Every structure is written in C-alpha cells, then in structure tokens.
C-alpha cells in the first residue's frame, strides 16, 4: 500500500458484498490510491428492499454486519464510519460524484444477475462523468467469469469441471489474504458531507415482496442521509419490526473472525471434517462451522477461510494425522460455492428460473411460474393448477405437513434462518420429487426469504441436487 503525502484523489468506496476490513482487495486498492478524502458508503438500494424476498432474520444479520463495520472504521479514524445513503446506486452515485468531487469509485466485483446489470450501468455513468472505476475480485476464491472461460465458455455443472478450470488459474491456488488497514483517511467535513441540497429521486416501492413483514412505518427513504440525517445504519426505519427476528446467529466481522478462530483451534475437527458425516441433528455444538452467512455478506473473507484451513491441514499432514480430501472437506465446500457462482455467471437472470434457462430441464411440476410479461419480466406469480398442491405448499412452508422431520426443519428455518445442508436436502426433496411434486421455484422463493446465508447462485441447488431439473 502506498505511503507518504496524500494525493488529490477523492475516493468513494462502495461496500456491497464485502462488509469487512480484513482481506478486502477492493479496499486495499482504494487505499493504495493514497486519497486525500476517503468515503466508505452503502447505497440503500430499493431493489433489495422491495424486489428481493428478505425476512427479518436476514435484515437483522445485515444490519449487524453494517454496524460492526461502521464501528471498525470509527476505531481506525474517529471521523469515519460506514455512510448509508438512502437511494439506489444508479441515481444517487452520479449526484455524490458531483457533490463530493469524487475522482475514483472502487468496489468489489459481483456477478449476480441484477448486480451485473447495476454495475454496468454505474460504470457507464462513471465514464460519462469522468470518474475512474476500479473493480477487484474478493467475493469468491476465483473469478467466476475466468472460471467460465477456462471451462470452454460454459457454466460449471460439476465440482470436477470447477476443479479442472481452477487449476488453470494460479495452479488452483487462490490469492493469499491481505492484512486489514492500519489507518483510514478522513472523509469531507460535515458541511461538505451534508446532502440537504441534493434532489431525491422517487423510489419505486411496488410491488413490495416483503410487505407482510413491514408492520411499522416505512421511513427508510425519507431523507438521503436517513431520518436522523447522520448516514446511520437503518435499525429503526425500514418498516420491519426486528423483534420478529429470532435467529441466534449474529452478524459482523468480529463475530465471523471469532467463530473462525474457534474452529481453527480444533485442529482435529478441521483436518477430519467431511460434510456427509456431519448431522443436522447436532446443535450443541453444531457439526458445521455456521460461517456461510458471513461469507454471503462478506463479513468473512473466503480466502482467509481457505488459507487458515489449509494451514491446519498441512500441520495435520506433517504430524501424520488423518486429513480429509476434496470435495467433502472444508476446502471442497468452498469450491462447491465457487462452482455455483460460475454456474450462474454466464446465465444471468435465467439462472433463477426454468423459463429461458438453457441448462434447465423442464419438468411438469405443480405451481409453475407464470411466463414473463411483455417486457420480459418474471414477476414471481405462479399458476395454481391444483388447489391440493397449493395447500401442500403452504403447509410445507409453515411446517404443518404432519411429517415431524420436515416440520421441525421448516420451523427451525423460519426461526433461525439457517438449517444444515442435509436438512435443506430433506425439505427440498419433500416439496418436489419426494412428495408434493411442487415446482422447485416455489421452494427457492421460501429459501430466499428465510435463509440468512442465501446466495442467488447456490440456493438454486433446489433444482440441481434435489429435483434433477437440469
């Protein structure tokens, strides 16, 4: 990282999937510019607020991650924090560039379908405004687009395809993690940071897919700086009563590093870990790491996870102790995660649906998603071709099937926002080919709402692993 006198750069650092300071390649690149002004922001995007299914547990986990990151910034520099700006990035960023005199926009790469469209539009606007954009990989072990190129331009449909592609990138070794910054430059002073004179764009809140959870007054877009006009993390004004969130799992970088540290201390557990031998019936302690939500929100670096585990496994090998292997060991689980990202990357929006998906096999499930409208938009509505199937779906969703194992898992999912992967297999199979013969897309929507570790890529294992719908 550069040292010495500050440059004339004014850097806007846009947090999205990287709510951490440790091992953040994009943050490292931003600080390497040696900016005179550094402003870390989160844009409170109405797409995720209203158009993505998010239950109270995931909202709470996100807010905990944001609050922890904001405190970490303040610890490094009392003038700093995470600045939450209440508008979508496509409209607010150009206004911020002009108002704050931004020279550089830096962020972590995101290959999710909506995110790619959003980022392409933001980069187009930045080029028009003369703002330099720097994008760095940090969400996955390997660049999903590069994996696709190494896989002959095709999505990765198996762990073998992922491994063969990855070995062509740095011999299959992810980059080593970076240290967290020791200092952070100042933002502008309060007067320059103030957004009172900026015009607010209208917010499209309809349809609101989370309306059932929004039991309080929705004030999250009342001011660009938030109702208290201090860029605060929106704990009180999103319209959702967070007392509904019953999950015992806590968000934030410090919590993620604590959990990882505890896992790493148990060297025999790390060395011998095999996912098929873990159990959804284990609770105290759980048989898996419970770090997947932190990987989703970026409060834990996947590269740090990988290399910390590799260090323990190498130590175990030298001690002549048993060491598990890919794909069932912990590194194998991280490779599976990369596999799903590289499966989604070339397919874009069609990956989330059967309709228009070149790698999905059509199966005549009940409750099929309705075709796209004239604008090509799939609104999530579905055809109730069988009232009996609709009743089965609702009972499955609420944990009222009468099958104790399925009901216990669905109630755990609703309360905690997390269930073991074998539990996920069980409930998904029951809904689809194992019992109800209901479309996997209905189950994926429930997972989207309730899981705190939900990834748009890997949650579609509803289709791949369980319904045989590829």
UniProtKB/TrEMBL annotation:
<feature type="binding site">
    <location>
        <begin position="288"/>
        <end position="292"/>
    </location>
    <ligand>
        <name>FAD</name>
    </ligand>
</feature>
<dbReference type="GO" id="GO:0005634">
    <property type="term" value="C:nucleus"/>
</dbReference>
<comment type="similarity">
    <text>Belongs to the DNA photolyase class-1 family.</text>
</comment>
<dbReference type="GO" id="GO:0003677">
    <property type="term" value="F:DNA binding"/>
</dbReference>
<dbReference type="InterPro" id="IPR006050">
    <property type="entry name" value="DNA_photolyase_N"/>
</dbReference>
<dbReference type="Pfam" id="PF03441">
    <property type="entry name" value="FAD_binding_7"/>
</dbReference>
<dbReference type="GO" id="GO:0005737">
    <property type="term" value="C:cytoplasm"/>
</dbReference>
<dbReference type="GO" id="GO:0071949">
    <property type="term" value="F:FAD binding"/>
</dbReference>
<dbReference type="GO" id="GO:0043153">
    <property type="term" value="P:entrainment of circadian clock by photoperiod"/>
</dbReference>
<protein>
    <recommendedName>
        <fullName>Photolyase/cryptochrome alpha/beta domain-containing protein</fullName>
    </recommendedName>
</protein>
<dbReference type="GO" id="GO:0032922">
    <property type="term" value="P:circadian regulation of gene expression"/>
</dbReference>
<dbReference type="InterPro" id="IPR014729">
    <property type="entry name" value="Rossmann-like_a/b/a_fold"/>
</dbReference>
<dbReference type="InterPro" id="IPR036134">
    <property type="entry name" value="Crypto/Photolyase_FAD-like_sf"/>
</dbReference>
<keyword id="KW-0285">Flavoprotein</keyword>
<dbReference type="InterPro" id="IPR002081">
    <property type="entry name" value="Cryptochrome/DNA_photolyase_1"/>
</dbReference>
<dbReference type="Pfam" id="PF00875">
    <property type="entry name" value="DNA_photolyase"/>
</dbReference>
<keyword id="KW-0274">FAD</keyword>
<dbReference type="InterPro" id="IPR005101">
    <property type="entry name" value="Cryptochr/Photolyase_FAD-bd"/>
</dbReference>
<dbReference type="GO" id="GO:0003904">
    <property type="term" value="F:deoxyribodipyrimidine photo-lyase activity"/>
</dbReference>
<feature type="domain" description="Photolyase/cryptochrome alpha/beta">
    <location>
        <begin position="9"/>
        <end position="141"/>
    </location>
</feature>
<dbReference type="InterPro" id="IPR036155">
    <property type="entry name" value="Crypto/Photolyase_N_sf"/>
</dbReference>
